[in-house]
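Re: folding output
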Amino acid sequence: MQTSESFSRLPVELRLQTLAYLPLSSLCTLPLVSRDWKDFFDTNETTIFRNAAALHRFIPSSTTPLADLWSIYSKRSLIDVDGWKSFCRRRLYIEQSWSGKRPSTVTEHHATGTAVQRIKVDEAEGYIITTSKMGGLIVADLVHNQVLWSLPRDYVPPFTHCEYGKGYLIFDRSGGAKELWRRAWDCQISPEMPAVSLPDNKQHQVSSAIHGLFKPWALLKMPMPSLAFRFVYPTLIVACWDQMYLWDVPTGMLIQTIAETQDGVATRGDINYIEVSPRHAFICGSNLLRIFSRELGKCVLDIPSTQFSFADWSYSLIPCNPLGTSPGAVLFPHDVVPESQHVRPPVNYRVIDQFIAAHVSACGSNLVALLSSSRIIVMYDFERAVRGEVEMREIALDIQLGSPSCRSKYLAFENGRIAVATEGGLFVFQLIFVDHSGGSTQREAPRLTVYRASRFGSPSLLKFISCLQMSDTGLFLNWDPTITVNRVRSETIFNEFLMQRTHYTTNDFNGDYFIQFETPHDPIPRTHRHRSTVLSIDFVPLNRDTE
């Protein structure tokens, strides 16, 4: 009490500066200490909780005005926010819900159609974009679950891949060209069309028939057949067999060509996925992950997929029980142990695996790559390895998400979170790296917590996931909502996966071991594989009563 009285005699500005270093958990208890503390908080609530929002990195700085929140966050994440205190309460709830400490809900978005192939989510504008295994494209309202706009099945081919960002929608046309559409109200604000790559009559004809949310913007004709494409505003990257083409989407202009992507010391192999950042381009090949410098226009780092170990820090999952999870929480923390416990072939042989996806952080410095064998590699500040300052394994984590005999399905990396779908489970995790910039030579392993969605535990359904997307407040995937998964049975199957010995087949001539993928038996009929729609796991409370 004496300490409290001494603190209360300090000038107001000094007290506020001191409180700016306290986390929300402490700020919530201080008003309960005494009447003086409560009065002080009531009088200075705006400053105290705006500083707390900055401390927790909910906002760019402590000078950010409240009105700017609606340009930073989506409307659904700001429901009932009327000041800095309610904003901090809402953000804290969302963070705790992602970590299984608060309830979360599963929502079926039936307006997205059936046989969903690809998903893109614009939470700020409130809609979901999907393409279908049967053809067509749908834009559905995220909240009201109704179709806002669509393109017919005979216009968008079956199994079409699509990309989206900042109001630009891109998808394949039969024949290899890429159609670019732009949100209609953005066209009204900035109506000047690209000077090159103009849309053709086919786009204008279908647009005049459906009017609405998007308008034709450009048609990009590829110099040669394309194998993969990826859009990270404002750049669209298209990979062909031995070249990559980079386009500026707002202008429709080809801005760079990177040649000889296949040749080099190591052969890249077939293309599984590509990624782009302002400084680099990435190709996930069947033999290696290849990183290119956009400035130099050449390969600067190869990471073979045949390595037994990719990092000094390796982790694997161990059996655990989701009992005791917060009531209503979809995610629960799953136990991990250092170093993989899975059986490896002899060291004089190679394991043949593949990189199937890679994503880079918004800052362009952190890289996450997914191997086919339920294995994820996280590279923190990978450019240090590119520059030769460190070995790649010194800045990487090697995480085995269950048995390597279960194939990986999809990877998402947004807002500092990583989500992975495999034939064994659905996982979300966040890494906290220790900053060694102060000169310390002692290396400390990053703190790792893995969360798993026990409700999504059927191998027969997990194997048909073709897309996984994350937003600030939700995780979206294609799933068959008509099937109820027995959680006890799914937990039993998953724990069997963890205890399963990895199967390898060998080719003695080359000395290579191939992982033998075997999805364990699960009695859900294959006829359900085309009934999937979009389900979301929502980590945002719908009203103040749930907080």
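--- second protein (sequence, then structure) ---
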Amino acid sequence: MIIIGLNAYHGDSSACLVINGKLVCAIEEERIRRIKHWAGLPIEAIKWCLKYGGVDIKDVDYIAISRNPYAHIGRKIIRVLSRLPKSGFIKGRLQNMANIKNIKSQIAEALGADIKSIKAKLEFVEHHRAHIGSSFLVSPYEKAVCITIDGFGDFMSCVRAIGEGTTVNIVDGVYYPHSLGIFYTAFTQFLGFPKYGDEYKVMGLSALGEPVFVDKMMKIIRVKHNGLFELDTSYFVHDSKGVEMTWLDSEPYIGRIFSPKVSELFGEPREKDKEIGRNYADIAASMQRAYEEVFFHILNNFHRKEARGDKVDKGGLNLCLAGGCIQNSLANGKIYEKTHFKKVYIPPASHDAGTAIGAAFWVWNVLLGKERDFVMENPYWGPEYTEAQIEAEIDNKIDGLKNLGCLIDKINDRIALCKKTAKAIEEGKIVGWFQGRTEWGPRALGNRSILVDPRRKEMKDILNTRIKRREWFRPFAPSILEEHVSEWFEESYPVPFMEKVYKIKAQKREFIPAVTHIDGTGRLQTVSKTMNPLYYDLISEFHKLTGVPIVLNTSFNENEPIVNTPSEAIECFLRTRMDVLVVGNFYIKRKGR
């Protein structure tokens, strides 16, 4: 049984291939198109998945799409008739629905196939069910509390459910126009970060302020006795006018969400690229605190409802989370402190890209009733390259490498390669590390990473000057050997996909200043020998040299999607001021570095 899963005509478009209940591969369209958060039909991702899996589109049995235009159709019709948003908004929504329903013929045309020869059945999986599929159905838990939170998907922004085996029972949820994601995105725009996906910048900014405006925030978003929440929609425009959105063949765009009424509470919105004063930092901190109050209200209320009698498995309730809001690693890192959940699964792509996998497994496990026998224990589901392919790309770029006076060394022994790379990091060099399969999700997790010494405080500024050019207040992340977490962080639970922020122990912060944020936290990745043996060995060699089992890990890119191919890695190395590039077994060093 062959299933293609798709997140299409939405931000972070993506595709995956599932064969007989096993994930074979998955990739976001942005990695191939080289446009961040690319929205549209992920045809290049589909082509790559089919090629990697050795499958022809004619052999595919199901195409699972993580949207259902017919979901909650009654509510949608009533909303349109009662609110009558501007015609451009309605036209855009109708076109998006038409694209989704016509997806099979569009795939056939793009692949040059006769649509009559494509036997695949289309299955439209409601958006939040696809989010649940991306977490619970690939989790290690037989039974779990399932919670999804995002902006909107098929007219819902939050769903609470119970998953057991291949059955998912939806308990309750939040419908349009109320949304925790909309709340966060609106204030992200208010703070002068207008691009799709800029919310992570506000998370970093929040550490610089104090939550002095929480009371005002809680007038805008209010918790309810049933464990859910509602917005005061007068502070937003999406309910009354609609918001312009672009989901077709480009970087996605969302028009302004907040209404002028927000300025009555917080003053004028910040203009993009203007100085960030203390007031804006306090707004960011207050908004993050308000988000967390609502987030933990949702979790704790549901825990109280479900933690009764025989509903509790031995060891307590398991929790599976997904949705765009679950990219909020600050809140995720406090789950163990603020709730009674102690077993939490968050997939490497909890945002909309992950729904491609969720839709595919929803079809396999729920609709077809097949037993669950796949657990997503690692994030490496993209392309990998042979030594010959890497060598060919080096040869193609040899003139550029020679112009920089680069020295190229081939090191076939993996431990020798790790030792030499660890020594370069220990000496203060910036290392591009390109190995194995591309990561699935928004984080570089040791296969497409830039690595530096976390002990050197100056490395934050050096990285930004030479390569990253990011806002000064954004932190860099630590990758740490899993068995050493409790020595360095106040929490010890593994974080394999860099999905949580923990407090760094106070006595350890001075030793790793480059990865310690102003509030004493770090968004960590725990690295195990089983998940990524080569990356584990590299950090182990650095540990032997320095006594520190941590490296600074940031994504291998320069204001672009994370590099996907050896060619892209070499090009990034050439146009930036990186010192060393390790791609496969090849160790490339700039002259004089």
